[in-house]
Amino acid sequence: MGKRRKAREAAIQYHFWRDLQHGDGPEQIGDFWEFCPATPRVREFAQPLIEGMVVHLQEIDERIRRYCENYEFHRISAVDRNVLRLAIYEMLYRDDIPPVVSINEAIELAKTFGGAESGRFVNGILDRVKNDLTRPLREAVPSTPKS
Q1: Residues 6+ apart with CB under 8 A from 112
Q2: Domain limits of the chain?
Q3: Does CATH place domain 3-132 in 1.10.940.10?
Q4: What is the end-to-end Cα distance of the chain in Å, rounded?
């Protein structure tokens, strides 16, 4: 398994932990890494995912609520909710990751850690998010050189 998949798993685990603690994460990120050991390379990719999800959590959750019109947000399983949060964060805020990669990774994570219908549920929500994007779906947006 690659470092990015492991990093995504760690980000989901961190936010799953936060869900179980009613929005509170570990006091220090080091406490999380002690509980969920990872190589420095995995942490390097996971850390911005974890922090970005925290910063944009309200907007991400609002988007999930919007697309789950017939499903109450609090009834979405914690695994599915956090897989969706990660993928939506990547799709909206990580131009270096093509949206289709985020969707495919989320579906696989949902199938691995969620229930029998998790992959289909996650795919349905993320497909709706994808339709709102204005950037290329199959490629990363090149970063502009800083002057």
Answers
A1: none
A2: 3-132
A3: yes
A4: 37
Q: Map tokens 């956090």 to a residue.
A: 82
Tokens found for residue 54: 């925290």
Q: Express each pLDDT in 77-100 by its tens digit.
A: 999 999 999 999 999 999 999 999
**pTM recorded for the entire structure:** 0.89
Using the CB atoms, write b or e for 86-102: b if 16+ within 10 Å.
bbbbbbbbbbebbbebb
DSSP state, residue 11: H
Are 53 and 81 a contacting pair, CB within 8 Å? no
Q: Cα 55 vs. chain centroid, distance in angstroms?
A: 13
